[in-house]
Design goal:
With 193 residues, this protein is α/β, with parallel strands linked by helices. It has helices spanning 9-23, 32-37, 54-60, 75-83, 99-111, 125-132, 145-150, 164-174, and strands at 2-5, 27-30, 46-49, 66-68, 89-94, 116-121, 137-141, 156-159. It has 8 helices and 8 strands.
Amino acid sequence: TVLVVDPCREMAELIVYELQQVLKLAARPAEPEEVARDPSLLAGALTLVLPYHLEKIRRLAPHAPVEEVTLEISKDDEAAALALPAGSVVLIVSHSPTVLPFATAFAQSLRGDELLIEARVLSASREWKRLLRAADLVFADALSVETVRKARPRRLRELRIVSEAALLRLRDALTIVAPHPSPGVVVASQGAA
């Protein structure tokens, strides 16, 4: 079991969703306050946190296994942003409000002021749907992509925030050798003769 802890519930939900889609494992989101109230949530679970929350969670549960997961934009998404002509409009839609500044800063670091970048949470549908018509490229996270797709953007990319390398590292961290049961002895019952 994996417990993803983040102060922004939507961020934890997004990471949980990506993990479940790729690794097919049991995972659930939690906020640090939940863990502080009930540290038993960490029992038997691998806890995942973003780097800026790592020490807080380690202080709450010093003996719990905690792994750091970093947000990362794929090389394909980077290439898509780099391929846009100057003056293009990029729309970023996310289930999590904390993804928006990260994704916006990433896009700006690639192209500076050459692109007009607009970022909206999925729940602000009137806002992002209005911007969708003008967008040359739309990035939507894994929990938003199907809703955004239904609005028929010109060009849509699913933005995954947990990298393949991080997923492989997590898969390795979850590999626990479980003892195999000993071959059982089958005892045949004899009926009365």
